[in-house]
Fold this protein.
Amino acid sequence: MNVMEFSKRVGISPHTIRYYDKVGLFNETRRLPNGHRCFHNEDIAWLEFILRLKDTGMTIADIHKYAELRKKGQKTIAKRQAMLCEHSIKLEQQIKAQQKHLEKLNAKINYYQSLMEAK
């Protein structure tokens, strides 16, 4: 599928897909005889994983490092696992911090609610 079709399938703009390809997040992107990029179904699962990493706060630079390791194949599994474990720990810390913020916010909301009910 071309970039436009791929874009529609994954819900990401063609510009973003081209950017991700340009910075090397995809394996060697296949090209059609006319030079246009050609994506396949396995690229969908990979892009979904890229987006998941991005949505959980991993930087494009770190995603690029992961992608480079992935391109090198099975011999990099331990390094990829270590990267994901490190990211998981950071994410858990962020979730705990956000949970504390949410608790404080809810406490303030409840405080204001009690003030309004006292009137």
